[in-house]
Sequence to fold (402 residues):
Amino acid sequence: VDLNFDSPVPSEAQIKSELKVNGSILDFNEGGNATYQQISGDEVKVNVTSGLDNNTIIETTLGQAKSTNNASNVFDIAAGGVYGGSPSGKYAIMQTHGFETNRNPTDDQYSIVRVEPNASGTGWVSSDDQTGLSSLNQLSSEAIGTIMRDGNGDYLHTQMPGNSYHEHSDPVKYVVTEAGGKYFIDGVAQAELTFEFGKTYEFDISAVSGHPFYLSDTADGGSRPHPEDGSNKYIQGVTRDGNTLTIEVTPNTPDLYYYCEDHPQMGAGISTVPLGMPADIADMAGLMKSLYEAADSDSGQAGVQIDDMNALKGILENAALNGDGSVKGLSELLNNLDPNTDLSAADGDQSLQNIVSQEIAQGMEEFNQEGNQKTIDEIFKETIEDTIDELETHIPEAFSGS
Fold:
């Protein structure tokens, strides 16, 4: 089994002392089970000669090593095999972090991605439906082990032959235009965007050559005039090739902003969230809508003010917090966070329960305002997104690779 490391490559000393494969330290001594070969300045090959076979997934630490002679990292998993109620299908086990050392063994993390065969049948692409997987994007070796292996260390699920899955999806493509001093993303003025961990996003900026399009982790690129050294620009995972700007989003990518370098207030914000969370938000908003419509129907006068708004507010809060069994609530999506835990004692009661209650109250008030043009679907989706934005200010580690 050959392991090839992506750049940056760990040092020879690090690899020989700290690299583990399937949890085991390798023996690089003469007569041992591993050899080290420096191919180039940014490529290293580790050959494991024994102790593994082609039916064993290569789970490495110290960088994301890719096996070049091994069965794939895709498994055929029966219903309920990933989480309670998960559908049957093909799932890829992705190593999203791999810098485990003797001093810090917690950085070795995995995510689970729902996949399907590509058009040619030679590999795998991510499924459009990642519902239920947003909380499974930062799993430890121990956690992934409980899903994948039995007490003897053998796989619980059928490992698929052939090529492994290494990319979450083909790039998500946006076309950027400009009118009236504002950027338009796919025709929407100053569109608020959402990036999912593991996906690649591609912006066609050919139509805005007079308005230099950049990304920043500060609103509008920070205070103007911007620094001449370009330090306000976000460049991690970002490439510019002619009229295309591309960014590869990881769990370490912060919330971002797109902006014009020459003209202020043209862009908008970009939220970065775990893979699959937009689908979970849509499911949660759909559940809340159905509960609202049921209460509206029970009032006997569909489309008018509901009699007991406080009772409905409580029902909606419970749905947002706990879901309904088939739809996950925020508590479960945030690793079973206690809804009553105060997330910021310095700011008064900032528990999940309190934040959800405030946001739902604001959403219901906005919906019932005279002249409101938003649908109930839009209101509930914004309510959940605003709740998540508020939570991220208190517990950013839940939305990052920390």
User: Anything to note?
Assistant: The radius of gyration is 24 Å.
